[in-house]
Amino acid sequence: MGLKRISESSVLFIIGATLVFVSFVLGIVGIATPVWTQSSTIKNGTSVEYHSGLWRVCSTIDRYHSMEETFCLSRIEASVEGWMQGVQTLEIVGLIFFVVGFVMTLALLLWSSNARLASANPWVLLVAGILLEVGVVIYVVKVDMNILGYSLYLTWVASNGVIVASIIIYCAERRNRRPTSTTVFYAPSSNTNPVQISQPM
Predict the structure, then answer these.
(1) Which residues, 6 or more positions from 81, have their beta carbon under 8 angstroms from its beta carbon?
(2) Alpha-carbon distance 189 to 195, whole Å?
(3) Does 61 map to a domain?
(4) Separation CA 14–CA 19 (nearest Å)
């Protein structure tokens, strides 16, 4: 199967696909980086900065602005609360759906025009966005909103971006499925003029 020209796809689908790709990058960075929360404190001339993500908890100690040390602990090695395990599960499953949706979108953009693939694509992306969004909401409810970090915001933007993209791609797919009419000429049995009939394809 040869490559399709991107110009063969509808403008609406290209917009949705672009949003999928941008959201995918933001989601990967947000889930992987350990700055879902961040805070700092200064005591006796020593500055301590804390930041944590889904997988690691880190602290950076700066003693009198002369020596900086960073210590990180994997959440796998530490005891993790039940709600955090739930958030981790939601984000991982959501990311799996996102990867599948990303590949499907790329395939539809560059290679395939399969109707079943086109129909399933927006729903896979929608499920991915909802799972990521629910994980972010649970995390926000459980922690102090004043210490939220950039990793969480990137994941939140990604989840909303892929939900919007799924709606755009769904509309593009529905528009492509809309029947068009074609004109068919039937030869008459007698010497009369041909009969012209319009019927949907």
Answers:
(1) none
(2) 11
(3) no
(4) 9
Please report where in the chains the tokens 């990604």 appear, as a residue: 158
**How many other C-beta atoms are found inside a 10 Å radius of the C-beta of residue 90?**
20
What crossing angle do the helices spanning 150-177 and 82-110 adopt, rounded to 10°?
40
Spatial distance between the Cα atoms of 62 and 69, rounded to a whole number of angstroms: 7
pTM reported for the whole predicted model: 0.78
The encoded tokens of residue 28 equal 């990967």
CA distance 154 to 137: 13
Tens of pLDDT, residue by residue over 108-121, are 888 877 888 989 99
| Structural domain boundaries, residue 15 | 6-38+78-184
Report if residue 143 sits inside a domain: yes
CB neighbour burial string for 165-190, b if at least 16 within 10 angstroms, e if fewer: bbbbbbebbeeeeeeeeeeeeeeeee
